[in-house]
Design brief:
The protein has 305 residues and is an all-alpha fold. It has one domain (40-304). The chain has helices at residues 2-17, 31-43, 45-59, 72-88, 98-120, 122-125, 127-132, 139-165, 178-202, 206-219, 227-233, 237-244, 247-259, 272-297, 301-304. Helix 5 runs antiparallel to helix 10 (206-219). 38% of the residues are buried.
């Protein structure tokens, strides 16, 4: 008995020396709470890795084809758009290598949609963990982003194989446009995921709203039609600038500039790299604000769930 008493006293002594800190809502919009949250997420990186692996395994559990199902939706979409839009509606006449053009846009837009939609529902999908275990709540939208990046990687490999088969390998310096374009998609997708995942805890209709919004953004971006077609339809230069400077439009144009070699001979927006850089800076500001809103609302997640 004395030994157990000494052990208990030592344990209480260690607990009393452990610094206490708040894990609830964060007030204000300063940088202190932001960096504290970043350090908290970094200290739980192993948990993030486990959540990403769990999401991927759960999605393809007991599936004969496994991760190959990640290709099913974009390939079916490609077939539909290639046949219906490309040939039945003759959209392919003005777009060389139409299949590569469409699949490039589908790959980029699919990444944004998966991050935004999956991240929005991530807190509700992990309600059991949120209510029982403390961990940075940002891990759940980040895990959705990680699984989306895995699926994106598979689709990107297929895209590169398609360019090889069609003799249009992107062996040019413009391939580096893919880097800022990918960063723009990640930043804006994660900003959407953080903001709407927090709101979705309190207003459950938000997830359906995000699904509709991403569908609208799909058709507002040059995925199945080219930017060159838009310039021939929109004659007002101000409206054309507004359309072109949509961050998703710029990101998709960046991916097309990188992987769609046949588009090199077509007209492109001026200063695309500069536009991508400005969009990235604006996206980082949006991400910071979205994260602060997330931190302010996370304190009542467990009670609302």
């Amino acid at each position: 008995m004395p030994d157990h008493t000494l052990v208990a006293e030592a344990r209480f002594a260690r607990l009393s020396e452990t610094p206490m800190r708040s894990v609830g809502a964060v007030s204000g919009f300063g940088l202190r709470g932001f960096w504290r949250s970043v350090r908290d997420v970094a200290s739980h990186r192993e948990m993030l890795d486990l959540l990403i692996r769990r999401d991927l395994k759960a999605k393809y559990k007991d599936s004969a084809l496994g991760f190959l199902w990640a290709l099913a939706r974009p390939l079916v979409q490609l077939a539909i758009y290639y046949v219906v839009l490309g040939h039945f509606l003759s959209a392919a006449r003005g777009i060389p290598d139409f299949a590569i053009f469409v699949f490039t846009g589908l790959t980029a837009m699919g990444l944004f949609q998966e991050i935004a939609v999956g991240g929005t529902g991530s807190i509700l999908a992990n309600a059991g963990l949120v209510k029982k275990v403390y961990m940075p709540r940002e891990l759940f939208p980040l895990a959705s982003t990680g699984s989306a990046l895995f699926n994106f990687g598979i689709q990107l490999i297929v895209l590169l194989l398609a360019t090889v088969l069609m003799g249009a390998v992107p062996l040019h310096l413009d391939i580096f446009y893919a880097v800022p374009a990918l960063l723009v998609i990640l930043v804006y997708g994660l900003a959407f995921a953080l903001f709407f995942s927090a709101i979705n805890v309190y207003l459950r209709d938000v997830q359906h709203l995000v699904e509709v919004a991403t569908l609208l953004l799909f058709w507002m971006s040059p995925v199945v039609y080219s930017w060159q077609m838009v310039t021939s339809i929109i004659t007002n230069p101000i409206v054309l600038e507004i359309y072109t400077n949509n961050p998703l439009t710029l990101a998709i144009l960046g991916f097309q500039r990188a992987f769609w070699v046949a588009g090199d001979a077509l007209a492109q927006p001026d200063h695309l790299l500069l536009r991508l850089g400005i969009a990235l800076i604006a996206g980082l500001v949006l991400l910071f604000v979205s994260h602060r809103v997330f931190l302010r609302l996370q304190g009542d997640f467990a009670q609302e769930l």
